[in-house]
Specification:
Blueprint lengths: L23 E8 L8 E4 L2 E4 L1 H11 L1 H4 L3 E8 L3 E8 L2 E2 L29 E2 L4 H20 L12 E5 L2 H13 L18
Antiparallel strand pairs: 1-5, 1-8, 2-3, 4-5, 6-7
């Protein structure tokens, strides 16, 4: 008889009790399933994207179209993973976009509407997981459509994140992203190197 205690435990990837929808900056690493090198190759310390890699970059760059409060920072696509910086702040809602489904008589406020004056008019913050899930779904869908490979999984189940604490942390991560292709041979996600995660 199989017991749940015999199954391997998944390591928690998120910070416990941290609200990933609060404004801030986040560094994410998203890996290809089984560390397969699907997106291109590193030649002379530079990433050379193939068609699949181009699709991934296009899907990443379209994130702010779906999440208007999100800004994309430094990013790099590697042969089998992706690093990027995502940030957002509290954003005021535009007057041209009133709340949906509010049908009331003058002076009445539906019970479902938040009347807190600090929050009224703000665009809801997306959660980091929702942004990453959207990116993974869209890139997988477009890759599978392009190659006629329906239902083929591209990405590993989870992703790694780091909450960027200050400007020093941000600069360190920007430099890491810029240097990543030059250090590919040493990368823990290189298929010839033993994986630590």
């Amino acid at each position: 008889m199989n017991s749940k205690s015999n199954l391997p435990r998944r390591r928690a990837m998120r910070l416990r009790d941290y609200d990933y929808s609060q404004p801030g900056a986040y560094f994410v690493t998203i890996r290809v399933r089984h560390r397969k090198c699907l997106f291109g190759t590193i030649i002379g310390g530079k990433m050379r994207l193939n068609e699949i890699g181009q699709i991934v970059v296009e899907c990443w760059n379209r994130i702010p179209q779906h999440f208007p409060s999100v800004e994309l920072g430094e990013s790099v696509i590697m042969p089998n993973h992706f690093h990027g910086i995502i940030s957002w702040s509290i954003t005021e809602a535009r007057a041209s976009h009133p709340p949906e489904n509010i049908n009331t008589r003058r002076g009445e406020v539906p019970s479902s509407v938040d009347t807190n004056p600090v929050r009224r008019g703000e665009v809801p913050s997306p959660a980091l997981g929702k942004i990453v899930a959207y990116f993974k779904y869209q890139s997988t869908k477009h890759i599978n459509q392009h190659h006629n490979t329906p239902r083929t999984r591209i990405w590993q189940r989870n992703y790694y994140d780091h909450v960027i604490r200050d400007d020093t942390d941000l600069q360190r991560l920007r430099q890491y992203i810029q240097d990543n292709p030059m250090k590919w041979a040493l990368d823990q996600l290189h298929p010839d190197n033993p994986s630590r995660w």
